[in-house]
């Protein structure tokens, strides 16, 4: 499986501090440790609150991250443990154990000013995290955006088309856009005006205006070919 490239639309950017590139990156010589370190930056950036950290289970419960370490669950767990040991030994992550009744938890903080303060507060007994303080966030495959759908199924982008696609992406739900493309492809109508007309009709008449709602499937198809959308089909 190859990487298909970054989408043309706006995406969230994860900030990395300058010392990561100048001081830390030249030292990291292990792929697992590098993956782990980048993952920590990504996940902490998506959390809220002044004090941000990850529990050991937060890594383990992210299936996509763990599969990125190894397809074998046992091996992935071993690689995670090794990567965490390397990162804490290097000092890029700070680790603290919480001995709570019937539960021992290991917390990982970024070795930043706030991370160091949090670890010191825990060790001195001045602060303890609550169970629900760490906001959940996991890796997930990026859904195909409208620009990728267009390039893969219709053709190269032009400035005018790109502008129209951007407006549509801001207007309609991603599920509508993907479904409209699917309908157009199934009917071999690879035309943006046709897809746009489907979306506008759904917006006007409801999402199921052009879905099969008990009517004959062939008649449903004719709604596209012979109805108001026929202007957008090359005969």
Structure explained in plain terms:
The protein is mainly alpha-helical and 235 residues long. The chain folds into 2 domains: 18-123, Winged helix-like DNA-binding domain superfamily/Winged helix DNA-binding domain (Arc Repressor Mutant, subunit A); 146-232, no CATH class. 51% of the residues lie in helices and 8% in strands. It is built from 11 helices and 3 strands, in the order H-H-E-H-H-H-E-E-H-H-H-H-H-H. It has a 3-stranded antiparallel beta sheet, sandwiched between helices. Strand 2 (93-100) and strand 3 (103-110) form a beta hairpin. The chain is elongated and about 65 Å long. Residues 210-222 have low confidence and may be disordered.
Rg calc:
25 Å
Mean pLDDT: 83
Low-confidence stretches: 210-222
Largest sheet, in brief, is: 3 strands, antiparallel
Could you say how many structural domains there are in total? 2
Q: How many strand segments? A: 3
Spatial order of the strands in the main sheet?
1-3-2
Q: The CATH topology of the largest domain is what? A: Arc Repressor Mutant, subunit A
Strand content: 5-15%
Number of helices: 11
Helix content: 40-55%
Order of helices and strands: HHEHHHEEHHHHHH
Summarize the structure.
With 235 residues, this protein is mainly alpha-helical. The chain has eleven helices and three strands, in the order ααβαααββαααααα. The two termini are 37 Å apart.
Key terms:
235 residues; mainly alpha; Arc Repressor Mutant, subunit A; 2 domains; three-stranded antiparallel beta sheet; 11 helices; elongated
């Amino acid at each position: 499986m190859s990487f298909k490239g970054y989408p043309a639309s706006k995406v969230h950017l994860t900030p990395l501090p300058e010392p990561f590139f100048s001081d830390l990156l030249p030292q990291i010589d292990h792929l697992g440790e590098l993956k782990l370190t980048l993952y920590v930056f990504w996940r902490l950036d998506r959390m809220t609150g002044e004090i941000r950290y990850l529990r050991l289970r937060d890594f383990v419960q992210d299936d996509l991250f763990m599969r990125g370490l190894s397809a074998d669950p046992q091996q992935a767990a071993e690689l995670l443990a090794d990567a965490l040991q390397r990162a804490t030994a290097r000092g890029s992550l700070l680790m603290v154990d919480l001995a709570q009744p019937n539960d021992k938890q290991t917390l990982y903080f970024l070795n930043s000013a706030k991370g160091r303060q949090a670890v010191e507060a825990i060790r001195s007994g001045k602060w303890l995290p609550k169970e629900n303080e760490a906001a959940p966030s996991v890796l997930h495959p990026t859904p195909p955006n409208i620009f990728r759908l267009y390039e893969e199924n219709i053709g190269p982008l032009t400035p005018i088309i790109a502008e129209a696609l951007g407006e549509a992406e801001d207007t309609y739900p991603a599920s509508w856009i993907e479904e409209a493309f699917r309908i157009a492809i199934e009917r071999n109508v690879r035309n943006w005006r046709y897809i746009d007309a489907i979306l506008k009709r759904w917006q006007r008449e409801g999402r199921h205006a052009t879905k099969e709602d008990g009517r004959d499937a062939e008649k449903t198809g004719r709604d596209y070919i012979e109805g108001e959308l026929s202007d957008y089909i090359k005969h």
